[in-house]
């Protein structure tokens, strides 16, 4: 299922075979929270810009339109017209991000919907059932993401509960994958390592979940307020304790520089809202760093966002025109910036894979980082 093709230091070039196709790693998953990329980007666009995996959000789709609706429509792949892999996160991050709207208990989490205030309960079994209804390729285990500034005592109790929840997730997924009416009976389960910035808690948790022989392992609870240096320190400690022969996913990370550093530490999977969120605000990525297309200096700039870029925006439009669209609040401006940013990330991952194959990853990383400065 997961096969390492080449290593360059700790950086891994691998293939991960799933029921919806083979994923070439390292990979950046394009984030479509509510089964769509924000910025008017369609699944037909995702194919054109080289997207391998789309990521959708369990909590948001449960709230609207409802996972039962998606199941009746044949699952998420049919619903959104996407035939490649989909990863669904478990709803656990919303436990962290909706702190004012929830209550955590051993059985699960009691939420208030951020849309209409109605009461929602989600525990490990409910999260697995929702994700089974969505019929994603990869389901994430239900966890709690403690704050990076939480006390050691709180983090330890939280991690212990996350481990108990993971066992419940696995039991429920095994049950669901045997049901006749389950759309994707080959759904995979990734467990999530937590522990905030406490290395010893992280390492002990990584070893405990590694023994559970899951389909893949994620490192969660980073990029939530700690420094980049702290993130890299935790990855240095944790990744070697996770099974090398399984995919490793760094959740919610990050900048191009974060990705380059994490690949160097053995990470395979990434996702982040940065490319789409920044694009919607006219901030675009290039190999010479980020540009803000709202700046007046681009008013008469006839060049594409980046010379040589083959994305739909750069092949057809100038910086001046895209700036005009943004200033005029035309949705096309936002769409073109998001397309460019996602293409930039997908292309960078392609270059990373090539560099690892050729044994030149250190040179590639150094050159890329120097360009961003």
User: CATH homologous superfamily of the largest domain?
Assistant: Queuine tRNA-ribosyltransferase-like
Proportion of residues in helical segments: 40-55%
Mean pLDDT: 95
Q: What would you say the CATH architecture of the largest domain is?
A: Alpha-Beta Barrel
E-strand count: 16
Gyration radius over CA:
20 Å
Distance between the termini: 38 Å
CATH class of the largest domain: Alpha Beta
CATH-assigned fold name of the largest domain: TIM Barrel
- Counting structural domains, the number is 2
What about the largest sheet?
8 strands, parallel, barrel
GO cellular component, one term: cytosol
Cofactor: Zn(2+)
Keywords: Glycosyltransferase, Metal-binding, Queuosine biosynthesis, Transferase, tRNA processing, Zinc
Protein name: Queuine tRNA-ribosyltransferase
Task: Walk me through the topology.
Elements: E1 2-8, E2 11-18, E3 21-25, E4 27-31, H1 43-48, E5 54-57, H2 58-63, H3 67-72, H4 76-80, E6 86-89, H5 92-97, E7 102-104, E8 109-112, E9 119-122, H6 124-134, E10 138-140, H7 152-176, E11 188-193, H8 199-210, E12 216-219, H9 228-238, E13 248-250, H10 256-263, E14 269-271, H11 274-280, E15 283-286, E16 289-292, H12 312-316, H13 319-327, H14 331-358, H15 361-372
Parallel strand pairs: 4-5, 4-14, 5-6, 6-10, 10-11, 11-12, 12-13, 13-14
Antiparallel strand pairs: 1-2, 2-3, 7-8, 8-9, 15-16
Describe this protein's structure.
It holds the Pfam family TGT. Pathway: tRNA modification; tRNA-queuosine biosynthesis. It catalyses: 7-aminomethyl-7-carbaguanine + guanosine(34) in tRNA = 7-aminomethyl-7-carbaguanosine(34) in tRNA + guanine. The protein is α/β, with parallel strands linked by helices and 373 residues long. The chain folds into two domains: 271 residues, TIM Barrel (Alpha-Beta Barrel), CATH 3.20.20.105; 101 residues, no CATH class. Helices cover 42% and strands 19% of the residues. The chain is built from 15 helices and 16 strands. The chain has an eight-stranded parallel barrel, surrounded by four helices. A hairpin with a 4-residue loop joins strand 7 and strand 8. Helix 6 packs across helix 7. The longest helix has 28 residues. The radius of gyration is 20 Å and the shape is globular.
């Amino acid at each position: 299922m997961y096969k390492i093709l080449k290593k360059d230091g700790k950086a891994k070039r691998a293939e991960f075979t799933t029921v919806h196709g083979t994923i070439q790693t390292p990979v950046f998953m394009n984030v479509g929270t509510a089964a769509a990329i924000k910025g008017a980007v369609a699944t037909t666009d995702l194919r054109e810009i080289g997207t391998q995996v789309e990521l959708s959000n369990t909590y948001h789709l449960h709230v609207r339109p409802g996972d039962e609706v998606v199941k009746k429509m044949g699952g998420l792949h049919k619903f959104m017209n996407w035939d490649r892999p989909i990863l669904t996160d478990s709803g656990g991050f919303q436990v962290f991000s909706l702190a004012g709207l929830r209550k955590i208990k051993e059985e699960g989490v009691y939420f208030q919907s951020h849309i209409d205030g109605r009461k929602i309960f989600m525990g490990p079994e409910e999260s697995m059932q929702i994700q089974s209804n969505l019929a994603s390729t990869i389901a994430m285990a239900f966890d709690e993401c403690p704050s990076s500034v939480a006390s050691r005592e709180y983090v330890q109790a939280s991690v212990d509960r996350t481990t108990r929840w993971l066992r419940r997730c696995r039991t429920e997924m095994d049950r669901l994958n045997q049901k006749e009416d389950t759309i994707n009976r080959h759904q995979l389960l990734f467990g999530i390592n937590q522990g905030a910035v406490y290395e010893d808690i992280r390492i002990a948790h990584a070893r405990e979940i590694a023994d559970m022989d899951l389909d893949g392992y994620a490192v969660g609870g980073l990029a939530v307020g700690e420094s980049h240096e702290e993130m890299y320190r935790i990855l240095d400690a944790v990744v070697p304790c996770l099974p090398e022969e399984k995919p490793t996913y760094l959740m919610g990370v990050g900048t191009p520089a974060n990705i380059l550093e994490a690949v160097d530490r053995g990470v395979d999977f990434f996702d982040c809202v940065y490319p789409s969120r920044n694009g919607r605000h006219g901030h675009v990525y290039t190999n010479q760093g980020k540009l803000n297309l709202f700046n007046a200096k681009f008013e008469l700039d006839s060049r594409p966002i980046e010379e040589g870029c083959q994305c739909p925006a750069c092949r057809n439009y100038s910086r001046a025109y895209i700036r005009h669209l943004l200033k005029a609040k035309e949705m096309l401006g936002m769409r073109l910036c998001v397309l460019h940013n996602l293409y930039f990330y997908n292309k960078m991952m392609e270059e990373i894979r090539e560099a690892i194959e050729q044994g030149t990853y250190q040179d590639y990383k150094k050159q890329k980082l120097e360009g961003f400065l």
